[in-house]
UniProtKB/TrEMBL annotation:
Belongs to the short-chain dehydrogenases/reductases (SDR) family. It comes from Sphingopyxis macrogoltabida (Sphingomonas macrogoltabidus). GO terms for molecular function: oxidoreductase activity, acting on the CH-OH group of donors, NAD or NADP as acceptor. Residues 6-187 form the Ketoreductase domain. It comes from the Bacteria. The lineage of its organism: Bacteria, Pseudomonadati, Pseudomonadota, Alphaproteobacteria, Sphingomonadales. Keywords: Oxidoreductase. This is 3-oxoacyl-ACP reductase. PANTHER family: 3-OXOACYL-[ACYL-CARRIER-PROTEIN] REDUCTASE FABG, SHORT-CHAIN DEHYDROGENASES/REDUCTASES FAMILY MEMBER.
Length: 263
């Protein structure tokens, strides 16, 4: 019951990593406000989990949306202790072909939104004497993927912005950390991947662990960072990627030399 009496705002909390976080946060005693575009899925999750889950239709890219959401959350649950900035969208396209609106939308949802939410929620965390912010960045913010221009830029921005939050608000007793998933079995990734024959197998081959993560495995680390167990951690960038970012990208010589390492 790490979260008994605590309240979290979770953006993108109706699906994938966000929904896994919400389920366990509530199971461990907390209350959640889900900020979502997909209100149907948010409503279904709230109906399933009970009155400690509320939801609002919010486009996280809307700069004006968070102040009313934060106020509403504080009124309903008595305050805000945790902000999980997790909503995100993918994006693919090389720079010369990138539509400007597509670039802007990707940066707005994945990066600007984190700033908007923190701007509105930090005063509420301060009012509680402190709190925790967890931002979902990505392995794709720690290094670059071919063709993921705007997404790579946005997620790298989330990582360094999280460090800014951490140092600026450490004396307010507010911790801020980012998590960096590798490929995770959620609609965001699999809806595209599973349309292309062989792509999942190729992607899994590249991950040292040999598989996509389950959303619960990413949420478990976000929950740890949100909890008092991580009271000594702020400003950290935590890969949860099955070893993806530990790898230089060079070929696996065992493939040519054999497992014993000799030809
Ligand atoms: N799935 C992966 O492989 C992977 C890898 C690295 C990072 N991530 C990051 O993890 C986070 C969660 O993604 P997921 O994989 O669980 O995906 P998901 O698609 O299952 O869930 C994302 C949720 O965010 C919501 N959302 C999207 N845009 C929104 C907006 N403008 N306003 C409000 N809600 C919005 C969606 O409705 C959805 O419910 C994202 O930030 C994503 O970039 C995912």
């Amino acid at each position: 019951m790490r979260f008994a009496g605590k309240t979290a705002i979770v953006t993108g909390g109706a699906s994938g990593i966000g929904a896994a976080f919400v389920r366990r946060f509530v199971a461990e005693g907390g209350s959640v406000m889900i900020a979502e575009l997909d209100v149907e899925r948010a409503a279904a999750l709230a109906a399933e989990l009970g009155e400690r889950v509320a939801y609002e239709l919010v486009d996280v890219a809307d700069a004006e949306a968070f102040a009313p959401l934060a106020d509403k959350t504080a009124r309903r649950f008595g305050g805000i202790d945790i902000l999980f900035n997790n909503a995100g969208i993918g994006n693919f396209g090389l720079t010369p072909d990138m539509d400007i609106e597509q670039w802007r939308r990707c940066i707005a949802v994945n990066l600007d939104a984190v700033f908007y939410a923190c701007r509105a929620v930090i005063p509420h965390l301060k009012a509680r004497g402190g709190g925790a912010i967890v931002n979902t960045a990505s392995a794709s913010g720690m290094a670059a993927d071919y063709g993921f221009t705007a997404y790579n830029a946005a997620k790298a921005g989330v990582i360094n912005y999280t460090r800014c939050l951490a140092i600026d608000h450490a004396r307010d007793n507010i911790r801020a950390n980012s998590i960096c998933p590798g490929p995770v079995d959620t609609p965001l990734l699999t809806s595209g991947v599973d349309e292309i024959e062989g792509l999942r197998a190729e992607w899994e081959r590249i991950v040292p662990a040999g598989r996509f993560a389950r959303p619960e495995e990413i949420a478990a680390v976000a929950l740890f960072l949100a909890s008092d167990d991580a009271s000594g951690m702020t400003g950290a960038t935590v890969p949860v990627d099955g070893g993806l970012t530990a790898h230089t990208g060079q070929p696996d010589l065992r493939d040519v030399l054999g497992a014993a390492g000799t030809a």
